[in-house]
Amino acid sequence: MSKMFVISVGRASARHVGLKPDLRVSIMALLAAALAVSLAGCSLMPNYERPAAPVPAAWPDSVKLKITKEIVLGDWPDYFTDPHLQALISAALENNRDLRIATARIAEARAQYGIQQADRLPNANLTAGRNASLTPAGASAFTTNAMHTQRYDVGISLLSFELDFWGRVASLNEAAKASYLATEAAQRAFRLSLIADVANASLSLQELRERTQLAAETARTRGEYRELTSRRRDLGVSSDLDFLQADGAYQAAIAERANLERQQAAAANLLDLLVGHPVKQMKNLPAARNLAVQGINPGLPAGLPAEVLLQRPDVHAAEHKLIAANANIGAARAAFLPRITLTGSVGTASRTLGGLFDAGSGAWSFQPALTLPLFDAGRNAANEDIAAARKIIAVAEYEKTIQQAFREVADLLNAREKLAEQLAAQQANADAQNRRLKLVDARYQAGIANHLEVLDAQRESFAAQQGALQVRRTLLSADAQLYKALAGYGSQGVRHMASQ
Question: Roughly how many angstroms between the first and final C-alpha of the chain, as a whole number?
């Protein structure tokens, strides 16, 4: 059972309705008082307190950051400076279908909030109707003749207005508002993820392009060496075994090039999906920069405080869901108490259409109703238990979101430092292997080194250069993902004083 107080009231001109002035004043005063009581009623919703963040106040020792005075992170055009990448991100923000869905869900949640908010105020309708009936002869206790009646009505009615003494409607309104804000925050979180995903997909595609070019160049040089070995075999200088080894190295480079071309095509398809439009069809698209000159600028401050996580949109969304769950407890508690509703109408009534607005045709009705739950087989108690359990779930999800955010940022901050060290060492190895290959090739041409040394140097140089490209892209991808991890805070241009 439920409790509800509904007021339905119509209002018409006294000239047409014929109500006495004191009666009109009484009705309007009652409506004003009912509205004031409804809007200022008490609330059974628990006081909301943000749970303490279940993460340390500082980053792990592995994250080495110094102290600075302030944090200023720009929006994505300041972060991703490659014009090619900027064009791709702009196109994705305009064309990505998943982002359109997330944006439409904001409008849907806003409309749901508007519907719920409308329940806090009276709803007035203009009504007009005709009621006609025929009673056959002998069917009436008052006359033996057939009886025909008809009535015309015009008026204004106020429908299903609940006096929100216990804050049930206000709690539902608060829950709807929090759900709307959670949807809006989720859309911002998806937007950040889309930007980072487009950047990562573009970087991966560029990595595969450069690795494919390297594989093609390696295949070309190994092909030349294969031809040289073939001629040396014809002259009796090299053996069939030497040629087969050179041919095997050449075929391996061809196979690796084909494998990278396959991966490159898949990466291009993924980028097209994220952008929402074929990249090849984009007009005036600047050429992509090489990985070595991408120029991603994290602008990461030193002394980055852990409380920056609370500014992430996914954390905001989780907290708004928690607020909604908290508000639903108030609505569930109010279901145990009486519900008062008022319905009524004011207008004119007449047996003939022409007499609707004659003097003395005024009509009104007033129907207050009180509903008090007596026995519902535990339905209301179960609803309150559900609301309480959902709040516990929302608290855990909020805390889990913060923990995941802390781990994500800590991992990325640590990865940037270690990847930078790894890239420096990998690039130094690639340079050393390239110099070694040149020396071994010169020695081979002079007849000092054998072909096995050349093949080994070729393999080591190729692997070192491929590894350097992979590490460089991984470092850039970490920077791109760090934008997603922190830009809910930084992309708004907010300044945050770091703790000293």
Answer: 58
